[in-house]
């Protein structure tokens, strides 16, 4: 068993707030020191916004849990300063294979093009991810950034007021009260904060269960995602295999609905299932076992006054497609720059309503894709099963059937079409992948990559046309990044940003989503787009 589970990374220590004569007011309090809460705190602190993280635990999560981290979240983590250790430790992969019975019927490559800094996916145990995030938080704290992790702090009550939130907190030394200008709830699928506020999810719970087993073994399987429909070792069900670091392999086995979960988790029942899949000759050790039930649900709203929900506390999807932690990181990436602008007085509080609008859209997109995957993987009628099996048979030899194969539509970033923050799309022939609302696609620039040049600020990217070095509007300074297609001999910049155009100007917001684009710079248009992007129009 990995000893990291047993090491307190943020042990309880008494805070001066517990000895204050009256409740101390903090800028932002985050409940939950999982990946989403830690990412939010790091993002805030590195921008100078005070972030206090409360958690009833004091160590990383038990078990590998979320393991698949997609390209877009890795790009976000690069900006937070912890993308490199993730990629260095993780197992990189782009290729997935789908089997029906024992036949390979389909293969896909999630990143077939060159010119990206990060791979389509890495596999990495969640406990490593949390450890790297805690280390990054400690680095920031040592450098004087306003971040604090408080383990052994259990929130027992939440009360909203006009200009703050009051929290009652239980500790080993007894209770205390803390106030926050803003509260971010990242306390997981069973969110106590959500329950305290009398809020709930809407959506579907699917009648099926899957066994997750992390096994330590020496195996020569390639570094790919393998998914089986109706395999000989799990007839009538499905299975999934992923490679992780340290010789750990993730195996998911479909069990069906009417099972005794506690019985199925016992090693004496798990091991024979795994031997049936791997063969009696393969030696392995169990590291972690769990059983999950498909759920595709979300809160109706992610913003409730001064309480903002992110990650699993706001939405849940089935694991197929790796949309849980990946979408949670996109939640905080969307939220933090807006919250900073509100705190700084640059933007009105109503800007936070766009967090709700955009990330509810993202959750709905994830839920739709996840539900469709679940329906394909676990047909609910005999006719649905006949259709699925026919698609799998056809896919082996006919390309037209392969888009219908759905073993989990893997996580991609949401394009916020129709966002209230989007400006004009006035670039004739501009590529759809870089339209307003879309995250900027990466591309080579000189010896590096474009996303590193963009950073996390408002920026005006010009391609082969002129513009001022900086433009100040309503408290926002948009600085210019001047590029030419010659900066990238591969042609990726042209293909990903100009398309049929010869020149272009892009306004990009701090989370690297496109606000607006034009063939050339226009000061009035640019000022209007900046005001719109911060909720002033």
From TrEMBL:
InterPro entries reported for this sequence: FAD-bd, FAD/NAD-bd_sf, RIFMO-like
Name recorded for this polypeptide: FAD-dependent oxidoreductase
Top-level taxon in the UniProt lineage: Bacteria
One of the Pfam families matching this protein, by short name: FAD_binding_3
Keywords assigned: FAD, Flavoprotein
Domain (FAD-binding) ranges: 27-365
GO MF terms held by the record: FAD binding; oxidoreductase activity, acting on paired donors, with incorporation or reduction of molecular oxygen, NAD(P)H as one donor, and incorporation of one atom of oxygen
Cofactor or coenzyme needed: FAD
């Amino acid at each position: 068993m990995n000893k990291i589970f047993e090491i307190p990374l943020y042990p309880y220590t008494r805070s001066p707030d517990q000895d204050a004569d009256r409740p101390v007011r903090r800028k932002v309090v985050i409940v939950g020191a999982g990946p989403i809460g830690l990412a939010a705190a790091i993002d805030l602190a590195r921008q100078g916004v005070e972030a206090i993280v409360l958690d009833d635990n004091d160590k990383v999560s038990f078990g590998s849990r979320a393991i698949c981290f997609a390209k877009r979240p890795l790009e976000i983590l690069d900006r937070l300063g912890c993308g490199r250790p993730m990629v260095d430790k993780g197992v990189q992969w782009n290729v997935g294979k789908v089997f029906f019975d024992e036949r390979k019927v389909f293969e896909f490559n999630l990143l077939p093009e060159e010119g990206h800094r990060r791979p389509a996916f890495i596999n990495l145990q969640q406990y490593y991810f949390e450890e790297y995030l805690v280390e990054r938080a400690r680095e920031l704290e040592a450098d004087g950034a306003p971040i604090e992790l408080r383990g052994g702090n259990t929130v027992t009550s939440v009360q909203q007021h006009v200009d703050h939130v009051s929290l009652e907190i239980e500790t080993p030394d007894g209770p205390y009260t803390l106030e926050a200008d803003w509260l971010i709830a990242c306390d997981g699928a069973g969110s106590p904060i959500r329950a305290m506020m009398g809020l709930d999810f809407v959506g579907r719970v699917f009648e099926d269960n899957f066994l997750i087993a992390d096994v330590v073994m020496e195996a020569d399987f390639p570094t790919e995602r393998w998914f089986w429909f109706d395999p000989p070792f799990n007839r009538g069900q499905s299975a999934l295999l992923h490679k992780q670091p340290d010789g750990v392999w993730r195996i998911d086995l479909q069990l069906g609905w009417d099972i005794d979960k506690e019985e199925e988790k016992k090693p004496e029942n798990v091991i024979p299932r795994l031997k049936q899949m791997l063969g009696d000759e393969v030696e392995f050790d169990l590291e972690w076992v769990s059983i999950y039930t498909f759920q595709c649900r979300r809160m109706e709203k992610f913003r409730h006054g001064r309480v903002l929900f992110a990650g699993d506390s706001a939405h849940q999807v089935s694991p197929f497609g790796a949309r849980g932690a990946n979408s949670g990181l996109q939640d905080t990436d969307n939220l933090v720059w807006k919250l900073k602008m509100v705190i700084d007085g640059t933007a009105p509080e109503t800007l936070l309503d766009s967090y709700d609008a955009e990330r509810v859209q993202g959750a709905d997109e994830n839920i739709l894709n996840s539900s469709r995957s679940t329906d394909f993987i676990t047909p609910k009628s005999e006719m649905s099963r006949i259709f699925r099996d026919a698609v799998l048979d056809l896919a082996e030899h006919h390309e037209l059937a392969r888009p219908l194969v759905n073993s989990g539509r893997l996580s991609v970033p949401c394009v916020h079409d129709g966002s209230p923050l989007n400006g004009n799309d006035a670039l004739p022939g501009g590529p759809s992948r870089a339209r307003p609302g879309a995250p900027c696609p990466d591309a080579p620039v000189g010896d590096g990559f474009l996303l590193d040049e963009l950073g996390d600020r408002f920026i005006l990217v010009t391609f082969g046309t002129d513009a001022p070095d900086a433009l100040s509007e309503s408290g926002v300074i948009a600085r210019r990044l001047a590029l030419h297609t010659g900066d990238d001999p591969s042609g990726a910049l042209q293909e990903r940003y100009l398309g049929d155009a010869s020149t272009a100007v892009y306004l990009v917001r701090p989370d690297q989503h496109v606000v607006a684009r034009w063939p050339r710079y226009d000061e009035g248009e640019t000022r209007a787009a900046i005001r719109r992007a911060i909720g002033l129009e």
